[in-house]
Amino acid sequence: MIELQQISKVFHKGKVNEVNALNDVSLAIKKEDFVAVVGANGSGKTTLLNIIAGAEFCTSGKVLITNTDVSRLPEYKRSRWIARVFQNPLSGTASELSLLDNFRLASIRTTKKKLQIGVNDTFKKRVRDQIATLGMGLENKLEQAIGSLSGGQRQALTLLMSVMDDAQILLLDEPTAALDPRSAALIMQIADNLIKQYHLTAILITHNLKEAHQYGNRLIQISEGKVKRDLQSAEKKALQLQDMYEWFN
Q1: Cβ atoms of 84 and 171 closer than 8 Å
Q2: In what order do the strands lie in the sheet with 60-65?
Q3: For the segment 32-55, what is each residue's pLDDT rounded down to a tens digit?
Q4: DSSP per residue over the chain, as a string?
Q5: Would you state the pLDDT for residue 111?
């Protein structure tokens, strides 16, 4: 599904502030894998996600998605495969628009834009039914500006919108970092349910070791721009949370 071949990323190459963010990273992520990625600040995990998304281009190496070389394909063109949820709930929505309008924008994210009726009763029912699955009562607030909602509510809606356009890959970029513990736990449960329901391939970047331990079938630790640990399903299940804390001591 996703294959990284000898990926390196150098920022400010040839200058005094040159940074080797990733060093010869090779990974193969299978369809429907849910990979949790942990690492200290500056380890390269966000750069890894940016290179997969197309927000950054690798200095050397190749990025393949479904056997297609996308190494020089910009982020907006990779959106046919990839949806991304950021840590800031404000990043995934248009604050001044209603819930319904935000969902409409999400539904046409990867289609050719043309003049047409944006919302009809069928679409409105689809959105209302999807939002109702959250159990937050937001299905009765479709005309309310999404900016008036709490961070947890917006992040939950962003997750729902991420699956509106049949994306195959979901990148979760510290999606709970800005939330209180209760909201964070809810968001991770919603994300896990959607990943399973829509058979998504998912990558979670997180500083929360409990989340990384609890979710996903694979666990990767990035350190100094390299893959230090790559635990597959059986190894991850056998791993104790305390073992993970000791990685960073």
Answers
A1: yes
A2: 19-29, 2-11, 60-65, 68-69
A3: 999 999 999 999 999 999 999 999
A4: -EEEEEEEEEESTTSTT-EEEEEEEEEEE-TT-EEEEE--TTSSHHHHHHHHHTSS--SEEEEEETTEE-TT--HHHHTTTEEEE-SSGGGGS-TTSBHHHHHHHHHTTTSPP-------HHHHHHHHHHHHTTTSSGGG-TTSBGGGS-HHHHHHHHHHHHTTT--SEEEEESTTTTS-HHHHHHHHHHHHHHHHHTT-EEEEE-S-HHHHHHS-SEEEEEETTEEEEEE-HHHHHH--HHHHHHHT-
A5: 58
The per-residue pLDDT for 160 is 93
Count the domains in the chain: 1
Low-confidence ranges of the chain (pLDDT < 50): 113-116
SS3 for 189-213 is: HHHHHHHHHCCCEEEEECCCHHHHH
Residue 67 makes CB contacts below 8 A (sequence gap 6+) with 3
**Domain that includes residue 165, residue range:** 2-247
Alpha carbon separation from 194 to 41, 117, 156, 169, 173 (Å, rounded) = 28, 28, 11, 12, 16
CATH at residue 136: 3.40.50.300
